[in-house]
Design a protein that fits this description.
The structure holds 2 protein chains of 2 kinds. Chain A is mainly alpha-helical. Helix content of chain A is 48%, strand content 0%. Chain A is globular and about 50 Å long. Chain A starts with 33 loop residues before the first helix and ends in a 30-residue tail after the last helix. Helix content of chain B is 57%, strand content 0%. Chain B is rod-shaped and about 145 Å long. Classes of the chains: A mainly alpha, B mainly alpha. At the A-B interface, helix 1, helix 2 and helix 3 of A face helix 1 of B. Chain A: Belongs to the complex I NDUFA8 subunit family. Chain A: This is NADH-ubiquinone oxidoreductase.
Chain lengths: 155, 116
């Protein structure tokens, strides 16, 4: 029994109904699928920067899942707060953008039109700006280029 | 004897219809089209790099969130497995449940998982 058993290859479902120990505070999982997460990723990075960095520093200390539970809960709570705020303030723009991502292989460059509307709304309502770290100095960030080479096949 | 008014002039000029643009024009046109194409390819390559950067950073921003969620699940399963081990090995004296076989304090994820 020293072989790693992949849960995906198991004939039985990889389930463990045992709940978390009672001394661990409960936190509701985010439960957001990949397209909305991708749509909100840069705002998440801006909004929850401190919590995220704290968590990653903690993980750098020790990879044990038990070590960073507290920081992890903070990260999840912060993400929840952001998603709630997004849905309260920019619901239609957000849904339009992530639906576009969903229909376009989750590539940002297919959905610039919806993205600009969302970015504008989020900046006005929440004050969050999408910045891509590492963009060369003096160049327009890729999400603000007016006439890019790579666009969707059908505009 | 020549006819009155003299002979009509000899037709020595070539009378060929226009056969389209000259070779130089076509060559120049092809060069221009190719040059523009390569310019676009170059711009596209620069753009692709930035698109890749954007994609990577969108994933980096999501890492803590997904890792935190996965950690909670891993911890829950770990504790359940420990509890099971304690229950199974309760009759063996000196058995420490969940003790690593390695003398290394750094974390190792479990080599085996139990599918109930």
């Amino acid at each position: 029994m020293s072989r790693y058993l992949d849960p995906a290859e198991s004939s039985k479902p990889y389930k463990d109904p045992t709940p978390l120990p009672a001394d661990i505070p409960k936190v509701k999982e985010l439960g957001v699928s990949s397209a909305p997460l991708k749509s909100a990723a840069f705002f998440l990075g801006a909004f929850c920067k401190d919590y995220n960095e704290d968590f990653m520093l903690c993980k750098a200390e020790n990879r044990d899942p038990a070590h960073c539970l507290k920081e992890g809960r903070r990260v999840t709570r912060c993400a929840q707060e952001l998603i709630t705020k997004l849905r309260e303030n920019c619901l239609s723009e957000f849904e339009k953008h992530w639906n576009c991502l969903e229909n376009n292989n989750q590539e940002y460059y297919h959905c610039r039109k919806d993205e600009r509307v969302l970015n504008k709304c989020v900046f006005e309502k929440l004050g969050l700006v999408k910045t891509i770290p590492g963009t060369p100095e003096g160049k327009t960030p890729i999400h603000e280029v007016k006439n890019p080479v790579y666009t969707g096949v059908q505009k | 004897m020549p006819p009155p008014g003299g002979f009509e002039p000899v037709k020595y000029k070539r009378n060929l219809p226009l056969r389209g643009p000259s070779g130089l024009v076509i060559l120049g046109g092809v060069t221009a089209v190719c040059a523009y194409g390569f310019y676009r390819v170059g711009k596209g390559n620069l753009e692709k790099r930035e698109l890749q950067r954007e994609k990577v950073w969108s994933r980096i921003h999501l890492v803590p969130l997904l890792l935190a969620e996965g950690d909670r699940d891993a911890y829950r399963r770990q504790q359940a497995a420990l509890e099971r081990e304690r229950e199974i090995m309760k009759d063996v004296p000196g058995w420490e449940a969940g003790k690593s076989v390695y003398n290394n304090p750094s974390h190792r994820s479990a080599e085996t998982i139990v599918v109930i």
